[in-house]
Write a structure and sequence with these properties.
CATH superfamily of the domain at 111-192: Immunoglobulins
CATH topology of the domain at 111-192: Immunoglobulin-like
Strand order of the largest sheet: 2-9-8-4-5
Largest sheet: 5 strands, mixed
Distance between the termini: 38 Å
Strand content: 25-35%
CATH architecture of the domain at 111-192: Sandwich
Bound molecules: 2-acetamido-2-deoxy-beta-D-glucopyranose
Shape: elongated
CATH class of the domain at 111-192: Mainly Beta
Number of helices: 4
Helix content: 25-40%
Length: 273
């Protein structure tokens, strides 16, 4: 393989692996609401160099972590060491070319009650637990609300929604007697991925995978073929050591194929000279 085709191969392989990766934003703690002064860490996963965390707030757009006077950035991560209610907003990762990840909505509460709910959409059919927390460690008895309507009281502060459906989507909050209520957070439910009829994006992905496997597999086939040919060339050549080693094998092995027999008869013939 000459250097140019090797370069093309490397380029193609990196292109394929790039196109199948999608950057994701994750947050720690994994909750859409946090108390004031809590530490919040944001990470861009599967992101190459140059991706940064950005946010929109009601009065400020696309502010970059570490640059626009918020957060401390390290690579593609960002940390807010002591959060403030003013840090409430929509967060995402963005590449220098303008590609974006998923978004995460974070609400920082200056009050004494928060609702912990998933930051990412939950999958249809899964069970989801929402937790009502006060600044004290123990989960209290709490009332849960959906779209402003009281739906349940839970004595331990945990409300589990079994087999969530699209109809469970909405704005949730909780209320603790004599402590007050949490801010509202949206619960999103995404459709269960279908396995029977993959969407067009998946078949394109499949084509990429097949090409990818071929690109990886071909050099192995080629080098194996090359090694066999070199070996055969040497075997038919005039190297006496090869002939001496190979001759007993011809007698020992009975199940040799025709090609191999040809080689061996050539070797033996040569040996008899
Ligand atoms: C952030 O604000 C900009 C400008 O208003 C808007 O175009 C963009 O869609 C917003 N991004 C998110 C994730 O809300």
């Amino acid at each position: 393989m000459d250097p140019t085709s090797l370069q093309r191969l490397v380029f193609l392989t990196s292109l394929l692996s790039c196109s199948t990766n999608q950057a994701r934003l994750t947050v720690t703690p994994s909750s859409s609401q946090v108390f004031e002064d809590e530490r919040v860490s944001l990470r861009c996963e599967d992101a190459s160099d140059g991706w940064t965390v950005r946010r929109n707030r009601s009065y400020e757009n696309r502010a970059e972590c570490g640059v626009d006077k918020w957060g401390r950035s390290a690579g593609s991560s960002c940390t807010i060491s002591s959060s403030d209610p003013l840090d409430s907003g929509v967060y995402w990762c963005e590449s220098p070319e303008g590609s974006t990840s998923n978004t995460i909505t974070i609400t920082v509460s200056g009050g004494s009650v928060i609702l912990q709910s998933p930051v990412l959409p939950v999958i249809e059919g899964d069970d989801v637990t929402l937790t009502c927390r006060t600044k004290m460690a123990d989960p209290p008895s709490a009332d849960f609300y959906k779209d402003g309507v009281s739906i349940r009281n839970e004595s331990d502060g945990h409300m589990t929604l079994h087999h969530v459906a699209r109809s469970d989507e909405g704005l949730y909050k909780c209320r603790v007697q004599s402590k007050g209520e949490s801010p509202e957070s949206r619960l999103s439910v995404s459709e269960k991925p279908t396995t029977t009829s993959p969407p067009p994006a998946s078949s394109l992905h499949l084509v990429f995978r097949v090409i990818c496997h071929l690109v990886v597999f071909c050099p192995y086939c080629f080098s194996t073929f090359l090694m066999v040919s070199i070996y055969r060339e040497r075997a038919t050549g005039s190297d006496p050591s090869v002939s001496v080693v190979m001759t007993p094998l011809t007698h020992a092995e009975q199940g040799l194929d025709d090609d191999y027999d040809d080689v061996m008869s050539a070797v033996t013939t040569e040996h008899q000279f």
